[in-house]
Amino acid sequence: MGLNLRHLSCQPSLTGSLLVRAASRSLYRPVSAAVLSRPEVKPEVSAAVLPQVSLRSFQTSAVTRDIDTAAKFIGAGAATVGVAGSGAGIGTVFGSLIIGYARNPSLKQQLFSYAILGFALSEAMGLFCLMVAFLILFAM
């Protein structure tokens, strides 16, 4: 719907009401509906140019792709939170190693082997979270 002001300038009584009606109609209509409902202009093509078998490709709108991209970034960011938990876990493991060694220095070797095991498990969980984040970003 195009509002041509040149034609409306001859009729001053209708100009204000038509402008208000057109403006209010564009305000209550969402932007996505306005973008998606625009008619597409198709060039005329003769029947001889068209192939005998018509192929249909999968098409998505720009709005859908933007929403999908935003969802990917949000999901990857949420999956990366586990890396911070891994860092906190590693800090807890080695903090406990220092406290345990301070209480009983004769158990140094056994406490250290437990600390390395805790470090490995905590680091593995952080790497799994990072892997899931990269899978969300690049594999989907």
UniProtKB/TrEMBL annotation:
<feature type="domain" description="V-ATPase proteolipid subunit C-like">
    <location>
        <begin position="74"/>
        <end position="136"/>
    </location>
</feature>
<keyword id="KW-0472">Membrane</keyword>
<keyword id="KW-1133">Transmembrane helix</keyword>
<dbReference type="GO" id="GO:0031966">
    <property type="term" value="C:mitochondrial membrane"/>
</dbReference>
<keyword id="KW-0406">Ion transport</keyword>
<keyword id="KW-0375">Hydrogen ion transport</keyword>
<dbReference type="InterPro" id="IPR020537">
    <property type="entry name" value="ATP_synth_F0_csu_DDCD_BS"/>
</dbReference>
<keyword id="KW-0496">Mitochondrion</keyword>
<comment type="similarity">
    <text>Belongs to the ATPase C chain family.</text>
</comment>
<dbReference type="GO" id="GO:0045259">
    <property type="term" value="C:proton-transporting ATP synthase complex"/>
</dbReference>
<keyword id="KW-0446">Lipid-binding</keyword>
<dbReference type="GO" id="GO:0015078">
    <property type="term" value="F:proton transmembrane transporter activity"/>
</dbReference>
<dbReference type="InterPro" id="IPR038662">
    <property type="entry name" value="ATP_synth_F0_csu_sf"/>
</dbReference>
<keyword id="KW-0488">Methylation</keyword>
<keyword id="KW-0812">Transmembrane</keyword>
<dbReference type="InterPro" id="IPR002379">
    <property type="entry name" value="ATPase_proteolipid_c-like_dom"/>
</dbReference>
<dbReference type="GO" id="GO:0015986">
    <property type="term" value="P:proton motive force-driven ATP synthesis"/>
</dbReference>
<dbReference type="InterPro" id="IPR000454">
    <property type="entry name" value="ATP_synth_F0_csu"/>
</dbReference>
<dbReference type="GO" id="GO:0033177">
    <property type="term" value="C:proton-transporting two-sector ATPase complex, proton-transporting domain"/>
</dbReference>
<keyword id="KW-0138">CF(0)</keyword>
<dbReference type="Pfam" id="PF00137">
    <property type="entry name" value="ATP-synt_C"/>
</dbReference>
<feature type="transmembrane region" description="Helical">
    <location>
        <begin position="111"/>
        <end position="139"/>
    </location>
</feature>
<keyword id="KW-0813">Transport</keyword>
<dbReference type="GO" id="GO:0008289">
    <property type="term" value="F:lipid binding"/>
</dbReference>
<dbReference type="InterPro" id="IPR035921">
    <property type="entry name" value="F/V-ATP_Csub_sf"/>
</dbReference>
<feature type="transmembrane region" description="Helical">
    <location>
        <begin position="73"/>
        <end position="99"/>
    </location>
</feature>
<protein>
    <recommendedName>
        <fullName>ATP synthase lipid-binding protein</fullName>
    </recommendedName>
</protein>
